[in-house]
Specification:
The chain is mainly beta and about 190 residues long. The chain is built from 3 helices and 13 strands, in the order E-E-H-E-E-E-E-E-E-E-H-E-E-E-E-H. It has a single domain, classed as sav2460 like domains (Lipoxygenase-1). A 7-stranded mixed sheet has the order 1-11-10-3-8-7-6, with no helix packed on it.
């Protein structure tokens, strides 16, 4: 049975799902339709990209996994969806908790709009965005968080994080908007892209 989360809600992955190690993190979204015209917003396609930054206990980035670097320590990105078309997960990131960097304390999942400034695109034009965690042992969805659209001017969004607290892995539903795409993440966490 999947748990529907609200912004800021947390669950204990270690306690609530005994033996959990291999996760599939699915991220999805749709592009808003034009009001009254029945079509999709004009202009360039919306290309949203999912990524994850691995962070140590000093809040410094250890690595960034994204469409340009699809494999990391205990993490693999399953590919770049250039349009977000279709149902279900648009992009998937696999995580093996036991294979992460020894000093990894947090994994922050990000969705950003590719070339947002150039294309004049913002999260106000994105709807039905979500993050969900799936137990790879049985393909059961563990939890899901549907974004509230609280940051219509943002071009990037921290959407969720898996973190280690007192030796237990937990998940928190986030909705923290920012501008500047992945360069903002690289600068914030001083991580190599």
């Amino acid at each position: 049975m999947s748990i529907n989360l609200t912004k800021g809600a947390k669950i204990n992955l270690s306690k609530d799902f005994s033996g959990l190690n291999d996760l599939q993190v699915g991220l999805g979204w749709d592009i808003a339709k034009k009001k009254g015209l029945g079509g999709l917003l004009g202009g360039a396609n919306f290309d949203l990209d999912a990524s994850v930054v691995v962070i140590d206990d000093r809040d410094k980035g250890l690595e960034l996994v994204y469409f340009g670097k699809m494999k990391g320590t205990g993490i693999s990105h399953c590919g770049d969806n250039l349009t977000g078309a279709g149902d279900g997960d648009d992009e998937v990131i696999n995580v093996s908790l036991s294979k992460l960097h020894a000093n990894a304390k947090k994994l922050r999942f990000i969705v950003n709009i590719y070339q947002a400034e150039k294309r004049k695109q913002k999260f106000g034009n994105v709807e039905n965005a979500f993050i969900r965690l799936v137990d790879k042992r049985n393909n059961q969805e563990l939890c899901r968080y549907n974004l509230n659209k609280d940051f219509p001017e943002a071009t990037g969004m921290y959407i969720g994080e898996i973190y280690n607290h007192n030796g237990e892995w937990k998940f928190a539903a986030l909705e923290e908007g920012f501008t500047g795409g992945l360069p903002t993440v690289v600068q914030q966490y001083q991580v190599k892209a």
